[in-house]
Amino acid sequence: MNSNFSVADAVMRAGLGRVFPAAQLAILCGGEAVFSARYGWLDPDSAQCPARPDTLFDLASVSKLYTVAAFMSLVETGVVSLNQPACTVLPELAETRPMQPYEDPLSPGDWVHVGAPGCAAEVDARQVTFRHLLAHNSGLPAWRPLYREASAEAALRMALHTFFSYPTGARVVYSDIGLILLGLAIERLSGHALDAAIGARVLAPLGLSATRYLPVADPLHPPDAADPCNVAPTELCGWRGRRIAGQVHDENAARLGGVAGHAGLFSTASAE
């Protein structure tokens, strides 16, 4: 092994079984792979199925970058502009909304307070532009428990009609909700479902043939035992009561059908 990569290899091996059950590491220089390795197992209990060069991994929030790239392609072609009010595409935002804390995703039962004392009690959502959504300073909460809704349609309504948590532009709060709305805007502007829009506008032009949504189509039910899904497991999901593999681990993205602006893409680390 090239000694230049021995430290990186050692770090990966140290995390195996403690931080992750399976992983890939690919290092490219000038577009050429100079180091490539796989670690761990796709079935960590029996250790019979090792990770492969083409194993897919859940990209989680890295999916946001693909959503942003797809939206910016619409900006480049003049379909939409950054300073355009989001309500021109998402008319559900053409209203005044209350401002309040949001549920803490890391501490169930707690609430996150963002708005400062003395702030106005309401926010005019018509002032939110696509630039605000992209910059995470729209005023939208970072997160809401969409997965508790009874259906994908109900979860999307919750995202579209949620309260705000601080005045638009007053600060930066990294928001899954904002990227979910951006993904919906891409669908309405392009006339295509988000996975198709990202496929045509980002994945195909870049030749990313091994990057995709929905390795297993239904993110809420266990996959068929015979499904030859070459996807690394992500976590033991308390909500779904099982280990997740081939299905988006993010609960909100799962409730939305597995295709969402903030999560849902899978890819391999190998050069495509």
Label this structure with key terms.
272 residues, alpha+beta, Beta-lactamase, three-stranded antiparallel β-sheet, two-stranded antiparallel sheet, 7 helices, 26% helix
CATH uppermost class of the domain at 63-195: Alpha Beta
Report the CATH superfamily of the domain at 63-195. DD-peptidase/beta-lactamase superfamily
Identify low-pLDDT runs. none
Largest sheet: 3 strands, antiparallel
Amino- and carboxy-terminal Cα gap: 23 Å
Question: What amount of the residues lies in strands?
Answer: 15-25%
Mean pLDDT: 93
CATH topology of the domain at 63-195: Beta-lactamase
Count of helices?
A: 7
What structural class is derived from the secondary structure elements? alpha+beta
SSE sequence, one letter per element: HEEEHEEEEHHHHEEEHE
Coarse morphology: globular
Number of strands: 11
CATH architecture of the domain at 63-195: 3-Layer(aba) Sandwich
Strand order of the largest sheet: 3-11-8
| CA-based gyration radius | 20 Å
Helix content: 25-40%
Architecture overview:
The protein is α+β, with helices and mostly antiparallel strands. The chain is 26% helix and 16% strand. It is built from seven helices and eleven strands. It has helices at 6-15, 63-76, 130-135, 152-160, 176-190, 194-206, 251-255; strands at 22-29, 32-40, 57-58, 96-98, 102-103, 111-112, 122-124, 212-213, 233-237, 242-245, 265-267. The radius of gyration is 20 Å and the shape is globular.
